[in-house]
Design a protein that fits this description.
The chain contains three helices and seven strands; from the N terminus they run βαββααββββ. The chain is α+β, with helices and mostly antiparallel strands. It has a five-stranded antiparallel β-sheet. Strands 6-7 form a two-stranded antiparallel ribbon.
Length: 160
């Protein structure tokens, strides 16, 4: 299926039924935010409401979360590029929202001593892996123009 990608959680205790539902929900939200943020960055003409990232299957043996998406021809290459950036430690290429989502995923892997693998429909091997040792940087760049406005209240001891 060319409109799918997968996040696989591996490690001790990573089986459906052994991970709390609210933790999986938090993880799925982070994945949706990651995909949405990167897609909106690369395709600003896409409306947030048009983009759906939906869970369609949970695989057994480890926790494999399989997602389908609308606009797959656009989203899957962007997902691949973003996860490749993670694999190559090029976090400057990612949006601040993506970094925040990666922190959520990284915290989950550290809490459970697991690994999170990112795959697409065509990749046998994971594109990127987040393990407990993976360091997601906290710092990120903010770019853009800023205008500062000020009012002078006092000069040389005299009130203006």
């Amino acid at each position: 299926m060319k409109d799918t990608f997968e996040i696989r959680l591996t490690g001790e205790g990573m089986k459906p039924g052994l991970v709390r539902s609210h933790e999986l929900a938090e993880l799925m939200e982070a994945i949706e935010d990651l995909v949405t943020a990167e897609t909106l960055k690369h395709a600003p003409d896409v409306k947030r409401d048009e983009l759906i990232v939906g869970l369609y299957e949970i695989a057994d043996k480890s926790v494999g979360l399989k997602f389908k998406t609308t606009l797959a021809s656009l989203v899957i290459p962007i997902f691949t590029a973003a996860t490749t950036a993670v694999a190559e430690n090029r976090f400057d290429d990612l949006t601040p929202q993506t970094i925040k989502s990666l922190h959520t995923i990284s915290n989950f892997t550290k809490r459970h001593q697991a690994k999170t693998e990112f795959k697409t429909f065509e990749s046998v091997e994971p594109i990127a892996v987040i393990s407990p040792e993976t360091i997601i940087p906290v710092e990120f760049k903010i770019t853009g123009q800023t205008e500062l406005f000020a009012k002078i209240l006092r000069v040389g001891g005299k009130v203006a």
